[in-house]
Amino acid sequence: MEPRYQAVARADELQPGQMKRIELDGRKLLLCNAEGSHYCVDEMCSHEDYSLYFGCIQGKKLKCSLHGSYFNLEDGRPLNEPADCPLRTYPVRVVGGQVEVAAPG
Ligand code: FES
User: Fold this and answer.
1) What is the mean pLDDT of residues 86-90?
2) Which residue puts its alpha carbon closest to atom 1 of ligand 1?
3) Which whole-number Å values give the CA distances from 57 to 25, 42, 72, 80, in the listed order?
4) Percent over 70 (pLDDT), the chain
5) pTM for this one?
6) How far apart are alpha carbons 27 and 90 in whole angstroms?
7) For the chain, which has fewer Cβ within 10 Å, the N-terminal or C-terminal residue?
8) 66 Cα–ligand 1 center, Å
């Protein structure tokens, strides 16, 4: 089944290294621009209930500022402890000048 995409930002809204909190189907997500590509992951860290919005993007990685785990933005997997569970990732596409994310469903 084709995912249901929803527009969440203008394509030029986020500069590389910036992120934006969004909500889709009642779920809190983070839209990230990493090196010019957009990625979308759950907003909350998989280690503890802490917002990754307070972290930072380095290359294609998202760093949690509470305990320092890095996550690969492409597949959500943690790259170092203490986090050991991946973040859920969501398909992103750019259409007609808008960034669209596939709703969690
Ligand atoms: S809350 Fe993110 S690494 Fe601990």
Assistant:
1) 97
2) 48
3) 25, 14, 10, 15
4) 99
5) 0.95
6) 12
7) N
8) 5
Closest atom of ligand 1 to 46 CA is: 2
**Please, which pLDDT band fits residue 22 given cuts at 50, 70 and 90?**
very high
Measured from the CA of 55, which atom of ligand 1 is nearest?
A: 2
Nearest CA to ligand 1 atom 3: 67
Tokens of 50: 């802490």
Task: Tell me which residues have their CB closer than 6 angstroms to ligand 1.
Answer: 45, 47-48, 50, 64, 66-67, 69, 82-83
The total of structural domains in the chain comes to 1
Under 8 Å between Cβ of 55 and 62: yes
Ligand 1 centre to CA of 98 (Å) is 31
Domain span at residue 57?
A: 5-102
Question: Contact at 8 Å (CB) between 87 and 32?
Answer: no
- pLDDT in the model for residue 104: 78
Ligand 1 center from residue 70 Cα (angstroms): 9
Query: What CATH number should be reported for the domain holding residue 58?
Result: 2.102.10.10
